[in-house]
UniProtKB/TrEMBL annotation:
The protein's name: Probable DNA 3'-5' helicase RecG
Organism for this UniProt entry: Novipirellula rosea
All residue ranges annotated as the Helicase C-terminal domain in the record: 475-647
Region (Disordered): 500-519
SMART domains: DEXDc, HELICc
Gene3D superfamilies: Nucleic acid-binding proteins, P-loop containing nucleotide triphosphate hydrolases
Keyword Hydrolase belongs to the record: yes
A GO term, aspect molecular function: helicase activity
Length: 720
């Protein structure tokens, strides 16, 4: 007789061929990313169900999950009509009695007999004077049985047509078949060392880390809280450790493979540069400059991020670095996310370097073809020392004569992964990226794992404060008369509104324009104010759909005081510096992110006058009921806001994790697991210092995991 041969289940067996699945279900599981048996094993629960401990009858609350242990004292099967039955029973213990009911399950009558001890659980409701459980979960107890320890049950992410119990069964089956075949990549000594290091960092854990088989099993079907915790730690640690090994390897590679020109500071150069600034540097600026100079003196590329709140004076540090390169006979390039900002940097540099021999070029969308060609030519021949520009720079294949430094301003606008690679003559320039959106520590260690950080916390002296107000009902008149008073005193004002309705697709580089419907377009606001409350003032309009020339002209008019009020989209978010502007009205504020609002606010704290920002929302909800806006009012510290933003929105959103080049984390959460992350990072670093290529015999499996996950992403060389 022919017997159908089922091939044995292995890690790569498609889900469709797993016991009890079939093509129809397999399709649904595929939507959860479950294609093979291995996928199922590593489909980690998103949460756990912890059955409530047994309760006394008089402590039961309607609708609240509870369990109860007791004895059946009455049971009756009644039929209401043909084919419709109801089975009812009473469960009693020393604290009282409840009723349980099962509809159309006549077999219950055979199962649940007088005198039987049971555990029931569910959410009761009150029926008459008695609590009633309809279709409770039911466990039979033997005469001697004590109450069984309530099991912690995994909760998985679901998709249409897949129930929690389907997944529990599927995972259970695969664990049964393959649980003991999961391959271990962390050798025993590593599991011991890691656990020691975790303990030293105050993390509670007993013995060495769980082996992979125990960890996976306990994560899906935990025996108790402690084993669940231990399983989580093992898997979180592994995930972060693999990432940190990759980052440590890349750091090493960068410092050994790539060659950069060493650009050393001498005291003569130092004082020559410092003399050009019209003010004393802050301590933080001095410290950052020291760190930057040390990096640039090395023959491998600097990879440093300078973070500092709006107005903390990052440009000074960048200018110093650029001049240091020039003093060493090398070129520097500076990139800005918008044309407005590029031009402003260009002007700043021209001012600082007036009457010096340093030659500066500008490259951006609006300059003429001929001018552009000439500038590119000059960069290649070395006639230009400093080149400022927008992303236009990134796309052209610009050759440099001798590039020593690349500064990228407002990095959060680019997306972290879009690392510019500019090379010149086989050497790599040093990189300095600047961001006004500070990076929370957990993120600095993951997304930016191989970047050094310098931070400006202190603001330059003489900075006026900014007052932030959330508009209440009926504030419009009051606020606008306040704005008019300031304008009459000679100050200037910003009015920020959400985006303009796109008319044509713009190829402009002001790509900070997001997609989306518009609510109160700047054009309408502009028209309303010009005719209404601000009719006696000169008002300008600025938005991303204007041509670069128009934008520049308007900015210039505002900077020179020819216009009093600038109605704008968030184009002004980055970098614009007009010290006389002291009042800002933000309309439709609920549509802006925290970091963005803070950037905007930075525009009115540039001078010596107190700044005022008032926030209105478009929706029905007053600004004070918006969590983000309330935070914005309460704190003026960009670092605090960034942490809060990170909490509210998650890291992906803040810096575009998709673009970051890092593999998505499946079980670790860098915020919650920051201590584990720190231990993983330190251990990875130590290991890579001793064994840069992970050549140790018992690390080979770990190494291939590092390469599989990060080899390509981080350019680590051969993907195993
Ligand atoms: P951001 O960090 O936001 O880019 P900027 O570099 O544009 O800040 O600096 C903001 C303003 O502060 C500029 O007008 C700059 O000239 C001024 N500034 C920078 N450093 C100092 C300092 N040490 N003392 C006084 N003013 C400073
Ligand atoms: Mg800046």
């Amino acid at each position: 007789m022919d017997q159908e041969q089922t091939p044995p289940v292995t890690m790569t067996t498609p889900v469709r061929f797993l016991p009890g699945v079939g093509a129809f279900r397999a399709e649904k599981y595929a939507r959860l990313g479950l294609r093979t048996a291995q996928n199922v094993l590593f489909f980690f629960p998103r949460d756990y169900e912890r059955p409530a401990p047994p309760k006394a009858v008089d402590k039961l609350r309607e609708g609240e999950q509870a369990s109860l242990i007791g004895t059946i004292t009455d049971a009756e099967l009644a039929s209401r009509s043909p084919g419709k039955s109801v089975f009812g029973a009473i469960v009693e213990n020393e604290t009282g009695a409840v009723r349980i009911l099962f509809f159309n399950q006549p077999y219950r009558a055979d199962q649940i007999k007088f005198g039987q001890r049971v555990v029931i659980s569910g959410a009761p409701k009150l029926s008459g004077l008695r609590m009633e459980f309809v279709h409770p979960q039911l466990t039979m107890l033997d005469e001697q049985d004590n109450y069984p320890e309530p099991k912690i049950l995994a909760i998985y992410a679901l998709t249409e047509g897949v129930k929690q119990n389907d997944l529990r069964h599927l995972v259970g089956n695969v664990l049964e078949l393959l649980g003991s075949e999961i391959h271990e990549v962390m050798p025993e000594r590593l599991r011991r060392d890691s656990a020691d290091a975790l303990r030293a960092a105050g993390i509670e854990i007993e013995g060495p880390l769980y082996d992979i088989q125990t960890a996976v099993r306990q994560l899906h079907q935990p025996d108790n809280e402690a084993s669940l915790q231990a399983a989580r730690i093992r898997l979180v640690f592994q995930e972060l450790f693999v990432m940190q090994l990759a980052l440590a390897m890349r750091r090493r590679k960068l410092t050994s493979d790539l060659q950069s020109p060493p650009l050393s500071p001498t005291s003569v150069i130092d004082s020559r540069i410092l003399n050009r600034f019209p003010f004393e540097l802050t301590n933080d600026q001095r410290q950052a400059i020291k760190e930057v100079s040390q990096d640039m003196a090395c023959q491998f590329p600097m990879n440093r991020m300078l973070q500092g709140d709006v107005g903390s004076g990052k440009t000074v540090v960048a200018v110093y670095a650029m001049m240091l390169a020039v003093a060493n006979g090398h070129q520097s390039v500076m990139m800005a996310p918008t044309e407005v900002l590029a031009r402003q940097h260009y002007e700043t540099l021209r001012k600082i370097l007036a009457d010096s021999r340093v030659r500066i070029g500008l490259l951006c969308g609006s300059i003429s073809r001929a001018e552009r060609a000439a500038t590119i030519q000059a960069a290649a021949s070395g006639e230009i020392d400093l080149l400022v520009g927008t992303q236009a720079l990134l796309y052209g294949d610009i050759q440099f004569h001798k590039l020593g430094l690349c500064v990228i301003d407002e990095q959060h606008k680019f997306g972290v992964g879009q690392r510019v690679t500019l090379r010149s003559g086989g050497v790599d320039p040093h990189y300095l990226v600047m961001s006004a959106t500070p990076i929370p520590r957990s993120m600095a260690m993951t997304l930016f794992g191989d970047v050094e950080l310098s931070t400006l916390r202190e603001k330059p002296p003489g900075r006026a404060t900014v007052n932030t107000y959330l508009a209440h009902d009926g504030w419009k008149d009051r606020w606008w008369s306040f704005v008019r008073e300031r304008l009459n005193e000679g100050r200037q004002a910003f009015v920020v509104a959400p985006r303009v309705v796109p008319t044509t697709k713009s190829e402009e580089e002001d790509s900070d324009d997001e997609e989306g419907e518009d609510i109160s377009s700047v054009q309408t606001v502009f028209a309303d104010l010009s005719k209404g409350v601000l009719s006696e003032f000169r008002i300008g309009l600025l938005h991303g759909r204007m041509s670069a020339d128009e934008k520049m002209a308007t900015m210039q008019e505002f900077a020179s005081g020819e216009i009093d009020v600038l109605v704008s989209t968030t184009v002004i978010e980055v970098g614009i510096d007009v010290p006389n502007a002291t009042v800002m009205t933000i309309l439709g504020a609920e549509r802006f992110g925290l970091a963005q609002l803070h950037q905007l606010r930075g525009r009115v704290s540039r001078g010596s006058h107190v700044g005022h920002v008032c926030v209105f929302s478009d929706g029905d909800q007053p600004p004070s009921e918006n969590e983000r806006l309330s935070l914005f009012e309460k704190t003026n510290d960009g670092f605090e806001l960034a942490e809060a933003d990170f909490e509210l929105r998650g890291p992906g959103d803040l810096l575009g994790r998709k673009q970051s080049g890092m593999a998505p984390l499946r079980i670790a959460d860098p915020r919650r697991d920051i201590e584990i992350l720190r231990v993983a990072r330190e251990l990875a670093q130590t290991i890579i210092e001793e064994d840069p290529e992970l050549d140790a015999e018992d690390f080979q499996d770990l190494k291939s995991q590092v390469m599989r996950r990060y080899g390509r992403r981080l350019n680590l060389g051969d993907v195993a």
